[in-house]
TrEMBL record:
Gene3D superfamilies named in the record: 1.10.10.160, P-loop containing nucleotide triphosphate hydrolases
Keyword Disulfide bond: no
Top-level taxonomy: Bacteria, Bacillati, Bacillota, Bacilli, Lactobacillales
PROSITE patterns attached to this UniProt entry: UVRD_HELICASE_ATP_BIND (PS51198)
Domain spans labelled UvrD-like helicase ATP-binding: 209-601
Listed name of the protein: Superfamily I DNA RNA helicase
A Pfam family of this chain: UvrD-helicase
Keywords (A to Z) from UniProt: ATP-binding, Helicase, Hydrolase, Nucleotide-binding
Molecular function (Gene Ontology), one example: 3'-5' DNA helicase activity
Key word Nucleotide-binding present: yes
C-alpha cells in the first residue's frame, strides 16, 4: 500500500478526530448545564413550590406545582443522561474512530459513496455521518461480502450495492498503525493478527473482524429459534455477545438489557465474557447458569452439583430413566398429568393451627373440586384460596372465645398492650368491648401464619404430588419405548423418594418438578423476557428446553452448541435437534452451521478433530503454530515433573496456561503436589468460583467455553480416558488451547489418541 494513501487516510482521520473533540466539548457543556440546572431546581424546589392546603383547589394546585418541578427535573436528567452517553461514545471514538472504510455505488449512474465504520455513530450535522455504527444497516456490507455486488437489509427491504473498496484500519491513539485493502484473494489480515494475540482472562469484542456467517447470526431478527451448531472455537459465544449488542441497538427504546437473558455453562464463563458488552458501550444482559436458575427456586432442596453429576456412574437402567425424564415425551406426559389434576387427584395437606388440624384436607379438596368444571388450575387455586380465607375470617369470632385467647390477654404486659392498641382510639363503652377488641387483635395476629400459608398455597404438597405423578407415569407413557420395565421404574421412584426425604434431588428431576409446580399453581412464565440465549445447548435435555420455552413465553430463542462437545448428555445430544424441531414453527426456525474454528492454530485444530470419530465438520483456520505434544511419564512423580517443566516453558514465553484434569480429585492431588514444589497455581473447584489470573488447574467439566494460550492435559492416560464415549470430553478439553497443547500421560497414554495421524503431534 503506497505511503501516500496512508498519509491521506491519516489526514482524514485527523479531521474526524478534530470534529469529535468539538463535539466532546459541546457534550461536556450540556452535561455541566444539566447538572447546574438540576442543582438549581432542587435548591429552588421549596421556594417555587406553592403550598396551599386549605381547599381542594389549593391541594390540586400544590400537586400540579410538584408535578411541574418533577417534570423539569426529569427533563434535565434526561438531557444529562443523553449527553453523558454521547460523551462516552465520543471518548471511545477519539482513540479508535473507525476500523473500516467502504466505497460503493448504489447503481451504475449513482454517485460513488464512501463510509467509515466504527464502534458508534458520529455525525457533525444531523444528516452527515462521519462514522457509522457497526450495527447500522449499511455497515452489514462490510461483513457480508467481498468486492462487487453485495446486498443488505434496510428497513425498506433489501438493497444491493456495488462495493469497490473495502479497507481495514488498525488505529491506536488517533494514529493509523496499519491499513489493508481486502479482496477475495487476500487472507483477512486483521483477523489473522487478532487471532495471533495472546489470550486474556477476559474475552474481547470481535466487531472489527466479524465473519460473514457470524454476521448472519448477529443480525437475525426473524427467527423464533435460531440454532447454531458450531465447532469448538468457531465463535459461537463471540457471535451471540455481538448479537446482544446488535439487538439492543436495533430495538433501542423498546428493548433493554434486562429483557435479554443468557444461560451460560458456569460462573467462570460469566466472568470471562463480562467485558464484551461494556466494551461495546452496552449493559450486560442477565446471566445465569441453568443450575442457578433452577436451584434458586428450590431453596430447601439440595440440587446435585455439576461435579456430582459428572462423577455419577450410572447403570444402563439409570441412563434410560434419565433419557426418559429428559425427553419431550415426558414433558407432554407431565402436561397431561397436570391437566388431569383439574378433575381429580390433587394432593392436599391439612392446614394446622397450634398443632391441631384447623381446616382438614378433605374440606380443602371439597372446595377445590367444588368449582365449575371449566375452572382451570390457576383459577381453581385462586378461588380455593379465597374460600379458605373466608373460612379463616369466619373462625375469628369463635376463636376469640377460646381459653388461650383469654390467657394471652391476661398475660400481656404494657408494651405488648400498646402494640395491640396501635393508633386506634382507646375509648371503649365497656370492659367487655375492650376485651373483644383485644381478643380480635390477638386472634388476627395468631392467624397470620395461616393466612400466609393459604396465600402461598402451602395446603398443596408438591413433593407428594411429584411422587404421585412418577407412580402414575406408566399409565401415561409406554415404558417399553424407552426399554424400561415397570419394576425398574418403580425402583427409580423409590430412589427419588429416598433422596427427597433427605432433601436431595438429581438435576434430571428438578425441571419436571418445577414444571409440575408451575402447572399446579398456574404460573404463566416471565412475559417480559424477549430474548433468551442458551450456550452449550448440547448439555441440556429436551425437557429443559421445553420448560424454558414455557417459562419465557414471549421470548425468541438463540441456542448454540457443539454436538461434538456433549460431555454430559453424550449420545443423547443427537436426538436433541430432532426434538427441538417439533417445538418451534419450522418457518420461524433457522439453523446455522459454523465449521471454521478460529480459536486454535491449524496444528491444534487438526489434532483435536482427529480425537473424534464421527464428529461434526471442523475446518482449521490457516494460522501456523507448533505441533501438540504427547508425553508418557513413567509414574505420577515423573508426570508431575513433566507438568512443571511445561508450565515453566509456557511462563517463560508468556503463554497463560490451564492444566485440565479429568475430575476434581485428580486436580486436587496435582495442585497439592505443585504447591509443595513451589509452583504457583490456582485450583478451580466449583462452578461458582471466579476466574483467577496466572496458571490455573481446572477439572474438565468446568473448562467449558473457556480458552487459554496453552493447555496441559493432565493424566491423558489410558486409566482416565479409555471409553469410546469419552472422546467428546477429551476433544472439549484439548480444544481449549489457542496456541499450544501438551498432553501428559502416566504409564500408558489414552487409546483415544491412537487414531490421530502420527505426523500431527510430537511424542516426547
Ligand atoms: N470473527 C472473529 N474475529 C476475531 N476473533 C474471533 C472471531 N470469531 C471467533 N473469534 C475468536 O475465537 C475464539 C473462540 O470463539 P468462541 O469462544 O466464541 O467460540 P465457541 O464457538 O463459543 O467455542 P466453544 O464451543 O469451543 O466454547 C475467541 O477467542 C474469539 O474471540
Amino acid at each position: 500500500m503506497p505511503d501516500s494513501i496512508k498519509a491521506q487516510e491519516q489526514k482524514h482521520l485527523d479531521a474526524v478526530i478534530a470534529k469529535i473533540k468539538v463535539a466532546e466539548t459541546a457534550a461536556k457543556k450540556r452535561i455541566d448545564s444539566a447538572e447546574g440546572d438540576e442543582a438549581g431546581i432542587r435548591k429552588n424546589f421549596v421556594n417555587d413550590l406553592r403550598i396551599k392546603t386549605d381547599s381542594y383547589e389549593g391541594l390540586l394546585e400544590t400537586a400540579l406545582s410538584v408535578r411541574q418541578q418533577q417534570q423539569l427535573l426529569a427533563e434535565r436528567q434526561n438531557s444529562w443522561q443523553h449527553a453523558t452517553t454521547e460523551l462516552s461514545t465520543l471518548k471511545r471514538l477519539e482513540d479508535k474512530s473507525y476500523f473500516a472504510r467502504i466505497d460503493f455505488q448504489e447503481g451504475p449512474t449513482a454517485k460513488p459513496e464512501t463510509i467509515y465504520i466504527g464502534l458508534g455513530s458520529f455525525s457533525d450535522t444531523p444528516d452527515h455521518f462521519l462514522v457509522y455504527d457497526w450495527r447500522a444497516p449499511i455497515s452489514s456490507i462490510y461483513y457480508d461480502g467481498e468486492l462487487g455486488n453485495v446486498s443488505y437489509q434496510t428497513p425498506d427491504g433489501e438493497q444491493t450495492v456495488d462495493v469497490q473498496l473495502k479497507r481495514q484500519f488498525q488505529i491506536e491513539d488517533g494514529t493509523i498503525v496499519t491499513l489493508y485493502d481486502t479482496d477475495q484473494t487476500v487472507t483477512d489480515q486483521m483477523l489473522l493478527s487478532a487471532l495471533s494475540e495472546h489470550s486474556d482472562t477476559k474475552m474481547k469484542s470481535i466487531v472489527t473482524t466479524i465473519q460473514k456467517e457470524q454476521n448472519r447470526i448477529i443480525r437475525d431478527t426473524h427467527s423464533d429459534l435460531l440454532f447454531v451448531q458450531g465447532a469448538a472455537g468457531s465463535g459461537k459465544t463471540a457471535a451471540i455477545l455481538q448479537r446482544v449488542a446488535y439487538l439492543l441497538y436495533r430495538y433501542r427504546g423498546h428493548l433493554n438489557a434486562g429483557q435479554v437473558m443468557l444461560f451460560s455453562p458456569n460462573q467462570l464463563f460469566n466472568d470471562y465474557i463480562d467485558q464484551v458488552l461494556p466494551e461495546l458501550g452496552e449493559h450486560n444482559m442477565v446471566q445465569m447458569t441453568y443450575y442457578q436458575y433452577a436451584g434458586r427456586r428450590l431453596p430447601k432442596i439440595e440440587v446435585e452439583t455439576l461435579a456430582q453429576r459428572f462423577g455419577e456412574v450410572n447403570t444402563p437402567i439409570q441412563n434410560r430413566i434419565s433419557r426418559l425424564k429428559g425427553s419431550l415425551t415426558f414433558f407432554d406426559a407431565v402436561t397431561n398429568y397436570a391437566d388431569h389434576l383439574e378433575g381429580r387427584d390433587m394432593v392436599f395437606r391439612n392446614i394446622k393451627f397450634k398443632d391441631k388440624v384447623f381446616i382438614d384436607k378433605e374440606k380443602i379438596e371439597e372446595i377445590y373440586y367444588g368449582f365449575n368444571r371449566n375452572y382451570h388450575l390457576a383459577n381453581r387455586l385462586q378461588a380455593t384460596k379465597e374460600a379458605l380465607i373466608r373460612i379463616l375470617n369466619r373462625r375469628i369470632s369463635s376463636e376469640m372465645r377460646t381459653k388461650w385467647v383469654e390467657e394471652t390477654i391476661e398475660d400481656l404486659d404494657r408494651e405488648q398492650l400498646n402494640a395491640l392498641y396501635g393508633d386506634d382510639p382507646r375509648e371503649f363503652e365497656s370492659a367487655d368491648k375492650e376485651f373483644q377488641f383485644l381478643a380480635r387483635k390477638v386472634v388476627m395476629k395468631a392467624f397470620d401464619p395461616i393466612r400466609k400459608a393459604i396465600v402461598r398455597a402451602r395446603f398443596l404438597s408438591i413433593n407428594t404430588q411429584y411422587v404421585h405423578m412418577l407412580r402414575d407415569m406408566p399409565n401415561r407413557i409406554d415404558l417399553n419405548d424407552f426399554h424400561i420395565t415397570t419394576a425398574d421404574w418403580q425402583a427409580s421412584v423409590d430412589e427419588t423418594i429416598e433422596k427427597l426425604k433427605e432433601r436431595h434431588m438429581q438435576l434430571v428431576d428438578t425441571t419436571p418438578y418445577l414444571y409440575l409446580y408451575d402447572k399446579m399453581t398456574g404460573k404463566e412464565g416471565e412475559r417480559n423476557m424477549r430474548y433468551v440465549f442458551l450456550d452449550e445447548i448440547q448439555d441440556y435435555n429436551a425437557f429443559q428446553l421445553a420448560f424454558l420455552k414455557f417459562s419465557f413465553p414471549r421470548a425468541r430463542f438463540t441456542m448454540l452448541g457443539d454436538l461434538n462437545q456433549a460431555i454430559f448428555t453424550k449420545e443423547n445430544s443427537r436426538t436433541l435437534l430432532q426434538e427441538l424441531s417439533t417445538m418451534f414453527d419450522p418457518d420461524k426456525t433457522k439453523v446455522v452451521q459454523l465449521t471454521q474454528s478460529y480459536r486454535s492454530t491449524q496444528q491444534v485444530t487438526d489434532f483435536t478433530k482427529h480425537i473424534l470419530k464421527n464428529g461434526e465438520a471442523v475446518t482449521a483456520f490457516d494460522r501456523e503454530g507448533e505441533l501438540p505434544t504427547v508425553t508418557v511419564a513413567s509414574d505420577e512423580a515423573d508426570g508431575i515433573a513433566k507438568v512443571i517443566a511445561q508450565v515453566q516453558r509456557n511462563n517463560a514465553e508468556d503463554e497463560t496456561t490451564a492444566i485440565i484434569g479429568k475430575d476434581l480429585e485428580d486436580c486436587r492431588r496435582l495442585t497439592e503436589e505443585l504447591k509443595a514444589q513451589d509452583v504457583a497455581v490456582t485450583l478451580i473447584q466449583s462452578e461458582n468460583q471466579r476466574l483467577a489470573p496466572g496458571v490455573i488447574v481446572v477439572p474438565s467439566f468446568l473448562a467449558k467455553g473457556l480458552e487459554f494460550d496453552a493447555v496441559i492435559v493432565w493424566q491423558a492416560s489410558a486409566s482416565r480416558y479409555a471409553a469410546e464415549d469419552e472422546r467428546q470430553l477429551l476433544y472439549t478439553i484439548c480444544s481449549r488451547a489457542m496456541h499450544r497443547l501438551s498432553l501428559i500421560a502416566v504409564a500408558e497414554r489414552s487409546p483415544l489418541v491412537a487414531g490421530i495421524p502420527e505426523d500431527e503431534y510430537e511424542t516426547i
